[in-house]
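May I ask for whichever protein you like with its backbone structure tokens?
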Amino acid sequence: MSKTANPPYIPFHPNPSKPRFKVPAGAVDSHCHVFGPAARFAYAPERKYTPVDAPKEKLFALRDYLGFDKNVIVQASCHGKDNSALIDALVNSNNKARGIAVVGEDVTARELKVMDEAGVRGVRFNFVKRLVDFTPRDVLESIAELFRAVMADTRKLVPLEQEIELCRNYVEIEQTRLGNRLAVDWQIGAYHPRAKVPQLLLQPVIENAIRYGAEKLPGKADIVVRVRQHGFVLEIYVSNPIAPERPEREGNQIGLANIRGRLALIYDLEAKVETQMRRDRFELTMTLPVERRT
């Protein structure tokens, strides 16, 4: 039993009885939690309650005892937005569990991808006041839109207008965190109304510009996003300031390698990504054929 558990949260029964009803083969426990252990997966400071530790080993043992085949593990509100315990349970479930995470306005596409690969298949929005603090509706809607996009096929072509709108929503999420420190100059030129691009092509670039640029600067950071069409070629340009100490950009390079790989897979040699450092700014230019397929 956790020594910090709130008085109302009594320990679970050490020897639960097995119901007379036998669940059918392949049955799934569709809503369950893992709690801690607190020594490894700390509970959130903003939690409304502190439960008794009930780690994945206890959950899996109970699942087998009751005769269930699989679990849907839902992120417990006492763990807040730190999904570490959930992800740990999923990757150690022998492919017998899927998860529902809790995320905030600062979640990144990269973090959602990690969750997806671990087995997360949805996001929980909790509106029970005794369990969580209030979150504005527009923030929840923006998170949901980003999650839908990340979970989709990254080879899928989407309207350029849709990709730009997704990026605008993502920037709004980040501005709730960074406030007036983050400003984006959207220079969107004319382009074919049916122009298509690979889904989540531009958003990771803007995410990098914030994570490895604007976020590291003490003052205001101006990011430029320019989209233009030249004949049958689409040009996408992103420029962001860089902190004087030149932060480690390993994660950024991994993201750029993924973008180059995706473009090569879809367009072969017709698309390219170029980067350069100029006047304390990092500049990225992508060029690709204008896709108008319906």
